[in-house]
Design goal:
Length: 80
């Protein structure tokens, strides 16, 4: 079952993401975003309903379904 949801980028751009089903992981979505947006996965943090989404969690576990909008935040690392 394919469904589509949106990710709002750090610049406010709406990015449409299509997946095969709710068993896809957040890490897989971050990989798609790296491919399309050129931002390394390790710098992408996804947030839904005020909660950071963990890479190994499935979309179903995160309550991500068709039509949902999630936010992308850049996870900047401190240090040199």
């Amino acid at each position: 079952m394919t469904f589509t949801f949106s990710v709002i980028s750090t610049t406010g751009q709406r990015i449409s993401i299509s997946v095969l089903g709710p068993d896809n992981t957040v890490g897989e979505i971050k990989a798609k975003l790296e491919e399309t947006e050129g931002i390394p996965q390790k710098m992408i943090m996804l947030v839904h309903s005020g909660r950071k989404l963990e890479d190994n969690a499935t979309l179903e576990e995160c309550n991500i379904h068709a039509g949902v909008t999630i936010n992308m935040v850049l996870a900047l690392r401190a240090g040199f």
